[in-house]
Amino acid sequence: MTQPKGDRARMSDFPTSFDRDQLLKCARGELFGPGNAQLPEPPMLMMDRITDISADGGAHGKGHVVAEFDIHPDLWFFSCHFPGNPIMPGCLGLDGLWQLTGFNLGWRGWQGRGYALGVGEVKLTGMVRPDRKMLTYYVDFTKAIHTRRLTMGVADGRVEADGETIYHVKDMKVALSES
Questions:
Q1: Which residues contact 107 (CB under 8 A, 6 or more apart)?
Q2: 20-177 domain in CATH 3.10.129.10?
Q3: Which residues pair with 135 in a beta bridge?
Q4: SS in 3 state form for 58-76?
Q5: What is the pLDDT of residues 125-178, one digit of tens each?
Q6: If both were cysteines, with which of 44, 67, 142, 168 could 137 make a disulfide (CB 3.0 to 4.6 Å apart)?
Q7: Where are the domains of the chain?
Q8: What CA–CA distances, in Å, run from 152 to 5, 83, 88?
Q9: Catalytic pick from 60, 64, 72, 81?
Q10: How would you write the chain as a 3-class SS string?
Q11: Which pTM does this prediction carry?
Q12: pLDDT (tens digit, 9 = 90+) per residue, 92-138?
């Protein structure tokens, strides 16, 4: 892994867990600096805290992120998806995984704004209804590339609802671009 140069932040400058206030700081562009990895603001921010992050942990030893999202019946998407049959859209769980993949790249000190590039495979095996209490996201990097021309993370992920695995994804791709 190539370390950033000069006054750019290094992963050792950041904690390995983040509370909601710190995630909101990232959403405002205050955590990794202007023009760098940034989370969306609520209501699109799909996690309440990151409980663990690394550049060398996870199933493949190439980095990981674990995060949690508290579920409560008044979340914005339940009233519109679907009236009378409220379910969290599966795409929001996938977006949460992409958000965390990009966050990890910024946490490493790598520069640029994050962009989801795609996903190889998505399997949804359960639903998030208003009676669920918490989602847990797991992102395990299979590749973390940082060169002069390309900064990209490739990762597998899963989402658990109250301990039950409900989403599996393979080969998520997120890049950072300085342009």
A1: 11, 14, 32, 37, 53, 55
A2: yes
A3: 69, 161
A4: CCCCCCEEEEEEECCCCCC
A5: 999 999 999 999 999 999 999 999 999 999 999 999 999 999 999 999 999 998
A6: 67
A7: 20-177
A8: 18, 39, 28
A9: 81
A10: CCCCCCCCCCHHHCCCCECHHHHHHHHCCCCCCCCCCCCCCCCCCCCCEEEEEECCCCCCCCCEEEEEEECCCCCCCCCCCCCCCCCCCHHHHHHHHHHHHHHHHHHCCCCCEEEEEECCEEEECCCCCCCCCEEEEEEEEEEEEECCCCEEEEEEEEEEECCEEEEEEEEEEEEEECC
A11: 0.93
A12: 999 999 999 999 999 999 999 999 999 999 999 999 999 999 999 99
Q: Please indicate whether residue 64 is annotated as part of the active site.
A: no
